[in-house]
Amino acid sequence: MKRRWSVRLALLWALGGSANAAEVPYRTHEQIREGALALIAQLRTAGAVAALTTARAGSHLDDPNVQRNLDWAERELPAHLAPLGACQRASLSDAERFASSFYRLHFVLSCTGGERQIMLTYRRKTDGWRLNQFYFD
Q1: What is the value of pTM for the model shown?
Q2: What is residue 84's three-state secondary structure?
């Protein structure tokens, strides 16, 4: 299963990160994974600003906590990625479900100057699944 996602992630990077990602709000865990893979591919190819713009558009726009988290990520992520240089690959390292309405995906970005872990948490509300938290180490 992990190999399949690595192949899909490589394909998404080659295509610029937009290969058939499902529309937000997502309806299934499969769609969440596809959307998260596209977001991580965009982070790698287009950078933090573009990826976080996409992340915000697919988030719970009416939730102030989610928006504060994305404000933090916009301020901090570019500086955390800059010293790492070009990122050659990313891998989905874990996926977990909890409290029936949360789904979290963990990615490891492997870059020239080291690795960075990215965690994306999605929450299901009345209209489907949307990004609830963008976190990195």
Answers
A1: 0.84
A2: helix
